[in-house]
Amino acid sequence: MSERVKRRYDSSRRREQARENRRRIVAAAHELFVERGYGRTTIADVAAAAGVATETVYGAFRNKPTLLHRAWDVAVGGDEQDVHLLDRPEMRAVLAEPDLVERLTRFAAVNTAIMRRTAPLLRALRGAAASEPAAAALVAEADGARLAAMAEHAASAARTGQLLVTDEECRDVLWSTTDGTLWHRLVVERGWSDERYARWLGRLWVAALVEDPGSVGGTP
Question: 107 with 53, same domain?
């Protein structure tokens, strides 16, 4: 009996160690891709930064493009769970809000948190896209996925009866303002706080998209 318990305990510890290794590898890869660039980062670099053997990285992720994809997924979602962004509680709460002004205000706050996690990596990948096929593929995939998500947001906004523009225009406005460029310009380059940026973005969306939004108040 004790031997079986010991084997279960050892197996549990090995699984937890493997999960911890994966978390450290993904975190190290994200940091290095942003700081050094995707093309200049090797699997050996990631292994050294994560404190594991190079073989451990290959065993967990097979190759650098797979590791990049996982680092991106974790950045988008904010954790290791394989849950689509639109199915996460914070986004479901946004889509459930019946008042479009409040919904866009909340969405701006959620999106700002996502930009904090993803914009630096996406910016690095765009810089590498011309010479690195894996980076170019992920940028295209991310843009396509974001367009599809914004189409869902726009369709949902239209169903409130409060949308000033067409579904397609709403989708395109949301898509073009959520690629990380505005966040980087205003937060990183101009020194805005995330809170200031989220308030501003919410007001921008409300003014452009909501039928007779009234006063949204506040100053940046």
Answer: no
Provide the domain count of the chain. Answer: 2
- CA gyration radius, the chain: 21
CA distance 218 to 214: 13
Q: Which of 79, 98, 129 is the last residue of a domain?
A: 79
Which value, to the nearest 10 degrees, does the dihedral of the CA atoms of residues 123, 76, 114, 211 take? 100
Phi and psi of 163, rounded to 5°? -85, 130
Domain boundaries, position 26: 1-79
User: What single letter denotes the amino acid at residue 128?
Assistant: A
Task: Give Cα separations from 190 to 183, 185, 194, 197 (angstroms).
Answer: 10, 6, 12, 11
Q: What is the pLDDT along the chain (220 residues), one digit of tens a residue?
A: 466 655 665 678 888 888 999 999 999 999 999 999 999 999 999 999 999 999 999 999 999 999 999 999 999 999 888 889 999 999 999 999 999 999 999 999 999 999 999 999 999 999 999 999 999 999 999 999 999 999 999 999 999 999 999 999 999 999 999 999 999 999 999 999 999 999 999 999 999 999 875 544 433 4
